[in-house]
Amino acid sequence: MADSEGGFSDPSILENLVASYGVVGAVVFGALVPLLFSIILVGKKKVKQRGVPVEVGDELGFAMRNSRYTELVEVPWEGATTIAALFEQSCTKHSRDPFLGTRKLINREFVTAGDGRKFEKVHLGEYQWETYGEIFNRACNFASGLIKLGHNVDSHVAIFSDTQAEWLIAFQGCFRQNITIVTIYASLGEDALIHSLNETQISTLICDSKQLKKLASISSRLEILKNVIYFDNDGTASDSGFSGDLRNWTVSSFSEVEKLGKENPVHPRLPSKTDIAVVMYTSGSTGLPKGVMMTHGNIVATAAAVMTVIPELGSKDIYLAYLPLAHVFELAAEIVMMSAGVAIGYGSALTLTDTSNKIKKGTKGDASMLKPTLMATVPAILDRVRDGVLKQVEAKGGLAKKLFNIGYKRRLAAVEGSWFGAWGLERVFWDAIVFKKIRSLLGGRIRFMLCGGAPLSGDTQRFINICMGAPIGQGYGLTETCAGATFTEPDDPNVGHVGPPLPCAFIKLVSWEEGGYKTSDKPMPRGEVVIGGFSITAGYFNNEEKTKEVYKVDERGMRWFYTGDIGQFQPNGCLEIIDRKKDIVKLQHGEYISLGKVEAALMGSNYVDNIMVYADPLHNYCVALVVPSHQVLEEWAEAAGIKYKDFSELCNKEEAVGEVQQSLSKVAKAAKLDKFETPAKIKLVAEQWTPESGLVTAALKLKREQIKNKFKDDLVKLYERSM
User: Taking every annotated instance into account, which residue ranges of this chain make up the domain AMP-dependent synthetase/ligase (predicted)?
Assistant: First the structure.
């Protein structure tokens, strides 16, 4: 219903309004008529209690539980105590329903940019679906094939691949033989990859074909590896790049292993809830990654708890999967979807929308083709969606911009007002006039979004709520808690918190005297966030010292994990994350600076795509490395008449640095940051920080040590310049 230029207005409705009342009249009508209905519905906003205090058996800390459950939730239904049982029972119940969908690759080509760099573009077709019953049979066949291939069931299997249907099939297949899976990020560097494979003594590795070259180059450093199974569904040559030292490995395609198992079925060997299902290697924000040991019971408990939060979850839903399955957030989300009989369509971050980098012009992106009702995301992606929409609105200008601004303000007032959700008259009006086109970016049918991996700003959450017309379930959790800690509820219109405890966990705050956070603080208790319950994992693989440092067991046998995050409970029992112990630096004059808090505030500048604040304890101020937004900075340079050859040269110009610095100062003042929290000097970094560069994690969190090492000379110069 958008106009031919991609605006956000509906011509059939808008033209009638303009014809009848003129431009001003149409705007007034749009603002006032729905308001007349909303006035009738105004009532006193009632605060719902979402978390309630609970005694946890010791005197240490202040604890909360979910208000809807007096006992912790452990399973979604009786008998589903392991991932294997959950998978089999769900496949039996939904045997004829679509389960996993993958787009057909029609062709790929490489285009050369003006600077000589080559980019891959793909033409993708419709989604091709397999049912729950068909996927169960494939998983059983793969399990049998794995055994016939010679894999020892007492040794681990690693999956080193991007997210795709075969990833989940291999994952479930291994559990048919009670084989522990080691998950490894596809973007992991060589040293971390070698460490992960050798530490867990991997004998069989499953990967996508593009990883074969990387494996060949490090083959001499892999001690135990015997079998390599590659996914052969991406249209690349099966043995490309595998001409190096094979070290007597057996190299097989995934389809070959499935065929072998189909011809030689093996009786299943199913796990118990206390068996280790997954050793999940973190992306290593500091040093080498640690392997977190998750039991079947841990993962099932998180899935059972999240299923209680997402409204009306079931086989009518379609979930868009594109985040890394090696990350606990995406893995937990897909197990939730599987448990509820949801159809899962696979995509990628580079093919997500019609304008994504890897999509060939004229080809639909994954979201447009799939039209999902559910999807998971991380704050960095939502921030980019928000920025992209605002830029399009600004570029469109005129009546479309006026209507967008009025519609957004009216919807925002409705969301924050006392009649949230009543009748929906104003919502329907503005959705038809303004927001329908925006929602088409993600297929137009999104009804609920899951967000995790990092804090989501209140402004972005509101923006997505309104423009996408869907609540965001913001989750807080860690790999060590199987992502199961807190989750915002869909009927909660408030922002700035991460929700009440999930029904599988207790959340406890423990005073941190050194940082000045105490459970006796008024008006709200504050302290280190400690999580206990069924989702708390078994510890770190081959690292008993670190396990004992952050995992504790109380007198009742309940396991607790000390997160290092600082939180406070809001009056309604929801948790708010306010700091992190590792991110706090004590400056020369005794002031404490929270790097994460400052970075979150400074991200409010339009010039900032990413930022790392650095504080040297020997000084009384901080500095920052800033990755600027290419488009925003280049638009400023053009308007200011700044001449430059490339973006790197622009970032080194004093005028550009000064402009961004001035913007940061304004944002810092608006956020009420102290003077010592505002960077005294900054360095503009031309290249973006990506997981592939090793400077951010797969969830786009900063890897501080790696960034500090890469830019150590620049940080030294910043302090020298500030003296």
Answer: 120-541
Angle between helices 296-307 and 328-340 (to 10 degrees): 70
Question: For residue 715, which of 590, 612, 609, 633 has the smallest C-alpha distance?
Answer: 612
Please state whether beta strands 592-594 and 486-487 pair in parallel, antiparallel, or not at all (unpaired): unpaired
Beta strands (DSSP E) in 463-521 are 472-476, 486-487, 505-510
CA 665 – CA 675 distance, rounded (Å): 9
Rounded to whole angstroms, how far apart are CA atoms 363 and 120? 14
Closest CA to 558 of 68, 65, 178: 65
**How far is residue 327's CA from residue 162's CA, in Å, rounded to a whole number?**
11
User: Which residues have C-beta within 8 Å of that of residue 259, sequence separation ≥ 6?
Assistant: 141, 145
Half-sphere exposure in the Cβ direction for 474 (13 Å, CA): 25
What type of residue is 566?
Answer: I
CA atoms within 13 A on the CB side of 227: 22
In this structure, the strands spanning 505-510 and 486-487 are unpaired
In whole angstroms, what is the distance from residue 140 CA to residue 152 CA? 17
DSSP string, 102-161: EEEEEEEEEEE-TTS-EEEEEEEEEEEEEEHHHHHHHHHHHHHHHHHTT--TTS-EEEES
Tokens of 28: 């007034």
Closest by CA position to 168, among listed 11, 56, 399, 336 = 336
SS3 label, residue 69: coil
Report DSSP letters for 225-242, one per residue: --EEEEE--SSS-TTTT-
Q: Give the predicted TM-score (pTM) of the model.
A: 0.81
Cα 316 from Cα 331, distance rounded (Å): 21
Q: How far apart are CA 621 and CA 577, in angstroms?
A: 24
* Alpha-carbon gap, residue 233 to 635, rounded angstroms: 42
Interatomic CA distance for residues 723 and 714, integer angstroms: 15
CB-CB contact of 574 with 518 (8 Å): no
Rounded to an integer, what distance in angstroms lies between the CA atom of residue 64 and that of residue 54? Answer: 5
d(CA 563, CA 547): 12
- Produce one character per residue of 408-446: b if its CB has 16 or more CB atoms within 10 Å, e if not: bebbeebbeeebeebeebbbebbbebbbbbbbbbbbbbb
User: Exposed (0-12), middle (13-18) or buried (19+): which is 377, by Cβ within 10 Å?
Assistant: buried
In whole angstroms, what is the distance from residue 718 CA to residue 349 CA?
A: 35
pLDDT tens-digit readout, 613-655:
999 888 888 999 999 998 899 999 999 999 998 999 999 999 9
CB of 698 closer than 8 Å to CB of 716 = no
In sequence order, what E strands does 372-452 have?
374-377, 448-451
Query: CB-based burial of residue 245 (10 Å sphere; 0-12 exposed, 13-18 middle, 19+ buried)?
Result: exposed
Among the listed residues 237, 259, 246, the one whose alpha carbon sits nearest the alpha carbon of residue 146: 259
pLDDT category of residue 345 using cuts at 50, 70 and 90: very high
DSSP state of 432: I
* Tokens linked to 112: 């050369």
Which domains does the chain show, CATH number per domain?
A: 11-40+376-444 (no CATH), 83-271+309-346 (3.40.50.12780), 587-722 (3.30.300.30)
pLDDT in tens, 515-563: 788 999 999 999 999 999 999 999 999 999 999 999 999 888 899 999 9
Question: How many angstroms separate the CA atoms of 610 and 380, rounded?
Answer: 9
Question: For position 514, what pLDDT does the model report?
Answer: 79
Residue 523: asked if its preceding bond is cis (omega within 30°), the reply is yes
Q: What is the pLDDT of residue 45?
A: 53
Q: Which amino acid would we find at residue 367? A: A
Rounded to the nearest 10°, the torsion over CA 212, 216, 219, 220 is: -170
* Gap between the Cα atoms of 211 and 188, Å rounded: 11
Which helix (H) or strand (E) is 197 found in, with range?
helix 190-199
The residue type at 371: K
Q: Which two tokens stand for residue 224?
A: 């135990």
